[in-house]
Request: fold
Amino acid sequence: MSDLSLLVFLPALGALGLLVIPRSRNSALLQAALSVALLTFLQSLWILYRFDPNLGEMQLVERLAWIPAYGIDYFVGIDGLSLFLVLLTTFLGPITILASWTIRERIKEYLFFMLLLETGMLGALVALDLFLFYVYWEVMLVPMYFLIGVWGGPRRIYAAVKFVIYTMAGSLLMLVGIIFLATRNFQVTQRLTFDLLRIAHLHLPYDEQMWLFLAFALSFAIKVPLFPLHTWLPDAHVEAPTAGSVILAAILLKMGTYGFLRFAIPLFPEAALVAAPFIAALALTGIIYGAMVAMMQEDLKKLVAYSSVSHLGFVMLGLFTFNLQGIQGALYQMLNHGLSTGALFLIVGMIYERRHARMIDDFGGLWKQLPVFSSFFLVVTLSSIGLPGLNGFVGEFLILLGAFEVSPLWAAVAASGVVLGAIYMLWMFRRVVFGPLARPENQRLQDLNSREIFMLAPIVGLIFFMGIYPQPFLSRMKSSVRLVIQRVESQKLAVPLIRGEASDEEKAARGN
Amino acid sequence: MMEQFGLLRFIPLIPLAGAALNILFGARLRPQFAGFLACGAVALSFLVSLAVFWLLPASGVFRDVLFIWIDSEPFKAQLSFQADALTAVMLLVITGIGLLIHVYSLGYMGDDEGMTRYFAYLNLFVFFMSLLVLADNLLLLFVGWEGVGLCSYLLIGFWYEDHTNTIAGNKAFIVNRIGDFGFLLGVLLLFWEMGRQGVWTLNFSELERAAHLLRPESVTLITLLFFAGATGKSAQIPLYVWLPDAMQGPTPVSALIHAATMVTAGVYMTARLHFLFSLAPATLAVIATIGALTAFFAATIAVAQNDIKRVLAYSTVSQLGYMFLAAGVGAFSAAIFHLFTHAFFKACLFLGSGSVIHALGGEQDMRKMGGLRRYLPTTYWTYLVAALVISGAPLTAGFFSKDQILWQAYASPNGSTQLWLLAWLTAGLTAFYMFRQLFMVFHGACRVAEPAKARLHESPAAMTVPLVLLALGSIFAGWLGTPDFMWGSVWDPWLQSVLGVQEAVDDAAPGGELFLMALTLGIAALGFLLAFLLYGRESRVAERIAATTIYRWLAHKYYVDEIYDCVFVRPFTACARWLAQIFDPGFIDGFVNGVASTIRAGSLSWRRIQSGDVQHYLFAFLAGTLLIFAYLLGR
Reply:
């Protein structure tokens, strides 16, 4: 088994291993799951070590025939686009297990689904066979459905069903698209395959590209979620248990943006170019809209959920600039959002466990009683509003830089989202953490215990590190992002000019 | 001439280390120790700054490169520092006056339970502020720029249990962000416009070399966007509204952040980018006009405030207006000179007011003070000196630096009589509101209520020594830049290496400067006299003035906050509320759920067809056959 396959299947093997531990032994189950998650993280560090930062192509690939009759392979690999999303997933693995320490009911099934989910996510990130990708894509749904539906809040069934049906509705179209692509490829090359790298050579006519792009884009846009397809998100977040919210926000949403970058854009570059202004318009609407709706939320989880709509709007905007700054910034912002929003959900979960309340008005003056908690909360809040020196700024700035090259108007609208971000986050922070400690329920709260500090400290450490020294990340993304850009650029001449383009000499001067 | 100087990085890093130590281990240390740690860190930083100032060769630049911060071709920003004459001056103000204020805080915050947190924030501020002036590129400057805003936010809301304070903190941060929106767009526009000319950089010295390549209209837009950022940070019209509210923070913070250093960052930025601003006469005209208007406008508000710190806050806004007026007429050196002298006398005034507030146990209403000079002699004398200096008493720092600005506003090629007139009137108002305050606080009958009156005391040495030092500085700092007919300026040649030689002032009327000086002195004397007549003696006039409509307008700051609230805040929040409560759940999610329930309803009705009744099926079969026949026959 190659390094990558070991990485993907470690959590699933661990999940099977859990089955032999008796249901009554709660702590043994938790410790086993934590060890599996830690091992997976170590394995991902090994992959980081083996990863060649200068290569843009797929690395550490492994290919096995899986369903030869249909040309379906087990084909995995990793490049600069997926590397850090894989690491984010494995990094948050142990943290989400730690966040589940207080779960009491059906802990065995819970941990089983958590580990299975990790395999699903890692698989989807490294899959290079379209069919394999689709399988992992759907595999992610099942554990998440149960995590929300069984361990969720009062309206968990509604939220879980909405989440699954909404996502399924999109992904079925994608499945049709995948099958169409494979048959089309067969017509041209007389070879039946679902191999992404081979299919990428197919040059489809524009209208076919557009239909296929739309099919893929709908599926991914629901996952992102791109405005106006976002309403499943607040429901799912509000009802999901803490760890579920963290994974949902930090990684599952990124599957949508990653899908655009890995599949929809490189496979259908012409269509992507034409669609770019429309998608950018939706992304910009989402930035402003998400922020304004977040501003008026009374439920902490809903507020964070809508802030995700706003932040993911930034990511989408960056992806569809098709320049190095925009896409690097988008990739970076995916990681930032994973860290800061993941941490925000952890923080809301910690306070919920203590107070069994989540409304902003239930709190106030927490700094006095919970200084450590509040300090972590402050750093994460500042990261979320993109304070320079922390990680969020690097991503936001690069996206704005990339967007400005395409259209100063895009950049201006997006930058106003930065102002709005400060407004809703600081309003919320003020109402929760500052003010008098008036409510008697809040006066008895305990500050963070060492388990909780262990959960937040690594995230906060990364928030600082990625803000001050982003180069190790950016340099490993660069070559792969370049390849995507080259694919799109090569199509640019074929597309009637839809917006002011810089001349070729200028492009050459910049080294793009 | 660039020279590597590896000590540069320690100027920001030492206070950062101080802040980090206090944050991480402060809970386990004695609060007093936290204060000493913070003071020590700033003192070390001050020593390094002195060394830089001392060793910096004429027209030379020290550099210290750490590493590449962000690299995304063609964009590249380094984490590297540079110090030239301008930076050196700013560093001395930041770490020098910063040190005095840190020491003062030992006394002022001595019995506050949040002392560790306070000193951590204060050190963090010195870190970000020195980063701001040491940055060798625009993006790193922006890190400092937003970082000082963060510290300002944290310190305004330092006493977080009172909502007023934290609301003021939020207002400061958000209003600044609105300005930064412009600043950030300015950075982006500058970067791509420069790139169009083949120069991919945000580094100051590289920008300066290539500035002439930019198209005139883009320079105007870029500089206007930068100035938008400056109106936020340096509290100019229309974004000055946060600064008076920022007085909710502890008084030493008001002195350090909201008077001496952070609020001058906009002026510093303008001077740092003088090579761009000089290319944009339209922007300069805007800056000069806004500066002069702000100076005058804020001074009129200061006249009618009764809170001891609010008077000083509007005074700061007004003095910052002077600095922008100077920058706007192209006299960057005069702007920085006033920044330098203002740091001394305004810090002295704020710390003096802090000493008063400390003695009165937190009272800030000047109507409940009076006659304090007997109880607080040192505070009184230093306050008097600083008040004289800001009013422009002859041969003090304020006299020289303000005179330069007024002269430039009139005589520089970009100046005009109108600008001078506004600045001149402001000079009169300045003397009036300062001495109104001095008389209300320190002279006349003591109006302090009884329990507090018995406890009146002069502040401890930790507080009075900085006061005395700042008062001395207020007098003598101005001697560095006297007019040509005295011994001339050592200041201008020193800054010329950075800011360039200024266009020669039109010297058609020799003695013109002297004449304007006399006029300024005249109106300042008038302001003093008026203050004395109205507030210096026991009289009922003051009360009658307070009852007039115009006074009420001034006291309510022209209702600008209320207007902003009605025009911007309320419509915006109403819109957000509508989106969040009606549009999102009703329309967007309603559509989604509508689709789902339509499909459900549709399936429910179709389900009836599958009744399992053979007669139904036979009927359908027959009907279908008939229909097909009918179709075939009718064709």
Q: What stands out?
A: The first helix of chain B runs from residue 10 to 25. Residues 625 and 631 of chain B are 10 Å apart (CA to CA). Chain B touches chain A through 57 residues (CB under 8 Å).
